[in-house]
Amino acid sequence: MAKCSLAIELDEPDRLYTSNDRIRGTVVVRADDDVQCKALKVRSGWATHGRGNIDSHDLHSEVLFQGQWRSGEEHRYRFDLPVSAWPPTYHGRFLSVDHYVHATADIPWAFDPKESRPYQVVSSKAPEAGIAEKKTVSPVVGGIVKFFFIAVALFMLFNPMLWIFGIPIGIGIGIWWFFKTYLPRKLLGQVEYTFDQETFQPGETLRATLRVHPKKDIPINSVIWTVTGAEVCVSGSGSNRRTHRHELFRGGQLVDELRILPGNKETLIPLELQLPDKPCFTMSLGSNQILWETKIRIDIPRWPDWNHSLAMQLAPSKELVQAATVETVDHGGGVSTQPTAAAGEEPDVTFAATLEMIQSVIGDDRQVDRIVDAVRELPMQLNLIPQRRELYSSSSKDHAYSDGHVVIGQTIEPVLPVTMFIPRSLADEFDQATDRPWSGEGSIVGYDHRQNRLLLRIEP
């Protein structure tokens, strides 16, 4: 058992932080026994949570204290940390990104107390290409990769037995290229597909242009233009690797009034689409991405269709940051990440609201059970901090997965201890998320009055 507890108090907990800001607050230490602390560390950074492998980055770390705490004492240590400019705070279905202040006390021969406090960040500008900085491949690694491919090619060249497999594969690739690429280009001639600008902001109009210059008249059925935005998260590795995709937006345009592309003349087809005003910016954070892509197809009768795809970048702007800041001031708090009900619809039961109701009646078992029964097995977006695995207990019999695991943790705000029943497919994800925020789908399935823990079943 830890000999002390930590709490983090932010000076401005409801503030929206932006680029070049600093976050200030206090780490509160309450000692339950005499404690020798090797280092009280605090750091700022961000981490992903959801369906994909966890990607994280610590921007800055510093030591606030080294020494001894006496039993019953309370100590307060100020911190002043930089804020990451990218990525912004984002809460989606399969992917969430949170910025946090994380404090840890290094206690010899005891569990190290830890505490995390999330805060919200909005970005006015995305880094180049809208992605987080990545380490470039070193020349040594590049040379090793090139040597490997050359060695494989030479091995196949001097081993005639492998030609039996290589020749059919090569023929198959050649046939595919001939029908999918060569024939459409041969018929249509020069085709150019471009955007009118490099980056776009939410709510803007996406404009693109298709130019076709065939050598002769070409009949077509239609031109189909599709724009999609999606969360793409990868979990596991090797044979356990899985890709989770959730579509955020799909739109496009069908051009079917043009039936003939005239020969020896350039045909210009303008394309236009209103982008959604949601701040789902293009992001690439390792195993977790938000991708925006456009696809265009010229439907040619009795001939292979011409297809082309082009990625686009949805980026933030200063105007969006100002609007978000004004909204925060007007409402006196942070920007809500929960969906709101449309006019005439019943509002959704949120996880945060349910926790507040349970917390308000803790100690009254009958009232707790009534609230739990009212929301039992309703799908919700859960925000949690996993802490450790636990052996199956009597409370696990009715709710646990037969091949799954039991994880002990807590909710983020308000804080309540929880027992999570997770499927085997998410075991690695929860191991990576230990003591870090995690978000995903699940439901409340009961309350363990003996352990005073809310029971949650996580959806695979």
Keywords:
460 residues; alpha+beta; six-stranded mixed beta sheet; 6 helices; 25 strands; 44% strand; elongated
Mean pLDDT: 80
The low-confidence runs, each spanning 5 or more residues with pLDDT under 50, are 129-138, 324-347
Oligomer: single chain
The backbone outline, from C-alpha atoms, is: elongated
What composes the largest sheet?
Answer: 6 strands, mixed
Query: Over the alpha carbons, how many angstroms does the gyration radius reach?
Result: 28 Å
Structural class: alpha+beta
The strand count comes to: 25
Structure characterization notes:
The protein is α+β, with helices and mostly antiparallel strands and 460 residues long. It is 19% helix and 44% strand. It has six helices and 25 strands. Strands 2, 4, 5, 7, 8 and 9 form a six-stranded mixed sheet that branches. Strands 11, 14, 15, 18, 19 and 20 form a six-stranded mixed sheet that branches. Strands 21-22-23-25-24 form a five-stranded mixed barrel. β4 and β5 form a beta hairpin. It is elongated, with a radius of gyration of 28 Å. About 7% of the residues have low confidence.
